[in-house]
Amino acid sequence: MFVSNHINVNEKNHLSIGGCDSLDLAKKFGTPLYVLDEAVIRENCRRYVDSVNKFYNGNGMILYASKALCAGGVLKIADEEGLGLDVVSGGELYTAHKAGFPMEKVYFHGNNKSEDELRMALDFGVGRFVVDNEQELSALSRLAKEKGKTASVLFRIKPGVDAHTHDFIRTGQIDSKFGVALETGEALAIVKKAVCAENIAFCGIHCHIGSQIFDLAPFCEAASVMMGFIKEIKTECGADVRELNLGGGFGISYTEADDPLPYGTFMEAVSRVIHEEAEKHGVALPFILMEPGRSIIGPAGVTLYTVGNVKEIPGVRTYVSVDGGMADNPRYILYQAEYDFLNAGAAGSDKTEVVTVAGKCCESGDLLGEHVAIQPVRPGDILAVMATGAYNYSMASHYNRLPNPAVVLADGGSARVIVRRETYEDLVKNDVL
Ligand SMILES: Cc1ncc(COP(=O)(O)O)c(C=O)c1O
Ligand SMILES: N[C@@H](CCCC[NH3+])C(=O)O
């Protein structure tokens, strides 16, 4: 299993993150506050890198899916740990550029890259374009020619595998906006076109079946389908597929009810499929890429809030309102995502109350959790939401003009800001009066 934020409680019975007392962090940096445990991020990166060494003899690379949390300070850690990077927009690409991320290790994804984004990526010299469709392939070929460059490409394939996860985050099935389908012949057609396209170097294929997946079977099935397609490409186009990117999607534990696969089992099973299928089809083992986001950064994050009003509605429920909500964590309103809640100042005590944690936005659905267990909480207490490292900061909005919280990195008992808290001035700076 991935290293998670085992709930560390210090001698004061306070939640401790990266050796820092969470109440001290809240006091020093204010709330809402995203706190990341640096050691957990590094440990998760290392587990992935080690298993590429173990199961693929080092013939592969792990890309950090920056959509999970894209900030220069986190990208630097990914780079230091030897990972490459998955970016999906000009903004993520620009962040990587500004953080000094090695561009040859950047994979540029996206189902609707604009020509400006493609030009920027060509200028920066990104390692690979993960091309989504024929229109993009033609545009990329033309733009690369204009710049006298060659674009190295992978194609995003819909392997036709149905992953059991929330509908909004399932991507492997034919009815998906991402990629080209295998069963219609669309995937083979685009590879054929790429092999003779100008200023294009065909390198490989990519798939990503969805996110927060707990079953092993769809990952194995996708790996098998992709290896079969590698054989088909060899037969039909005479082209060798040197790279196979299997995407991300490995599920993590948000609450006790989540039961992720043992990590080693997952890596070993997928690698077994790859090796067996390579032998069966008589094709060379491709360079393997995986692009986890949530399973690297998710468990490393905790969000701290200050409790404001507590509203008890007799016979109905108790609303505990905090100073953030859907603007810093839209995952409950989007996916009814569940989390583990703590009173950070009584973290080791029993959870004797059941409450609904509400945000401060003008929206009834602005909740962080309904009917959740927690220690008794009073106004002024610090409430912690666990495992919020992924898809919280990166999906934050300014609804009701709430400034985005700061992000701090905690390690060895000290903490530093890697994203400053927004100010009201930041919120109005682009207004034109
Ligand atoms: C193409 C692609 N790669 C990687 C990821 C990362 O997925 P996860 O954070 O679930 O590991 C995603 C998100 O679902 C994705 O769309
Ligand atoms: N944003 C989603 C996952 C989407 C992953 C990116 N394709 C989540 O919070 O779970």
Automatic annotation (TrEMBL):
<dbReference type="InterPro" id="IPR000183">
    <property type="entry name" value="Orn/DAP/Arg_de-COase"/>
</dbReference>
<dbReference type="GO" id="GO:0009089">
    <property type="term" value="P:lysine biosynthetic process via diaminopimelate"/>
</dbReference>
<dbReference type="InterPro" id="IPR009006">
    <property type="entry name" value="Ala_racemase/Decarboxylase_C"/>
</dbReference>
<dbReference type="InterPro" id="IPR022657">
    <property type="entry name" value="De-COase2_CS"/>
</dbReference>
<feature type="binding site">
    <location>
        <begin position="291"/>
        <end position="294"/>
    </location>
    <ligand>
        <name>pyridoxal 5'-phosphate</name>
    </ligand>
</feature>
<dbReference type="GO" id="GO:0030170">
    <property type="term" value="F:pyridoxal phosphate binding"/>
</dbReference>
<dbReference type="InterPro" id="IPR022653">
    <property type="entry name" value="De-COase2_pyr-phos_BS"/>
</dbReference>
<comment type="pathway">
    <text>Amino-acid biosynthesis; L-lysine biosynthesis via DAP pathway; L-lysine from DL-2,6-diaminopimelate: step 1/1.</text>
</comment>
<feature type="binding site">
    <location>
        <position position="335"/>
    </location>
    <ligand>
        <name>substrate</name>
    </ligand>
</feature>
<feature type="binding site">
    <location>
        <position position="331"/>
    </location>
    <ligand>
        <name>substrate</name>
    </ligand>
</feature>
<keyword id="KW-0210">Decarboxylase</keyword>
<keyword id="KW-0663">Pyridoxal phosphate</keyword>
<dbReference type="Pfam" id="PF02784">
    <property type="entry name" value="Orn_Arg_deC_N"/>
</dbReference>
<feature type="binding site">
    <location>
        <position position="391"/>
    </location>
    <ligand>
        <name>pyridoxal 5'-phosphate</name>
    </ligand>
</feature>
<keyword id="KW-0028">Amino-acid biosynthesis</keyword>
<feature type="binding site">
    <location>
        <position position="249"/>
    </location>
    <ligand>
        <name>pyridoxal 5'-phosphate</name>
    </ligand>
</feature>
<feature type="modified residue" description="N6-(pyridoxal phosphate)lysine">
    <location>
        <position position="67"/>
    </location>
</feature>
<comment type="similarity">
    <text>Belongs to the Orn/Lys/Arg decarboxylase class-II family. LysA subfamily.</text>
</comment>
<comment type="function">
    <text>Specifically catalyzes the decarboxylation of meso-diaminopimelate (meso-DAP) to L-lysine.</text>
</comment>
<feature type="binding site">
    <location>
        <position position="363"/>
    </location>
    <ligand>
        <name>substrate</name>
    </ligand>
</feature>
<dbReference type="InterPro" id="IPR029066">
    <property type="entry name" value="PLP-binding_barrel"/>
</dbReference>
<feature type="binding site">
    <location>
        <position position="391"/>
    </location>
    <ligand>
        <name>substrate</name>
    </ligand>
</feature>
<dbReference type="InterPro" id="IPR022644">
    <property type="entry name" value="De-COase2_N"/>
</dbReference>
<keyword id="KW-0456">Lyase</keyword>
<protein>
    <recommendedName>
        <fullName>Diaminopimelate decarboxylase</fullName>
        <ecNumber>4.1.1.20</ecNumber>
    </recommendedName>
</protein>
<keyword id="KW-0457">Lysine biosynthesis</keyword>
<dbReference type="GO" id="GO:0008836">
    <property type="term" value="F:diaminopimelate decarboxylase activity"/>
</dbReference>
<feature type="domain" description="Orn/DAP/Arg decarboxylase 2 N-terminal">
    <location>
        <begin position="42"/>
        <end position="297"/>
    </location>
</feature>
<comment type="subunit">
    <text>Homodimer.</text>
</comment>
<feature type="active site" description="Proton donor">
    <location>
        <position position="362"/>
    </location>
</feature>
<dbReference type="InterPro" id="IPR002986">
    <property type="entry name" value="DAP_deCOOHase_LysA"/>
</dbReference>
<feature type="binding site">
    <location>
        <position position="294"/>
    </location>
    <ligand>
        <name>substrate</name>
    </ligand>
</feature>
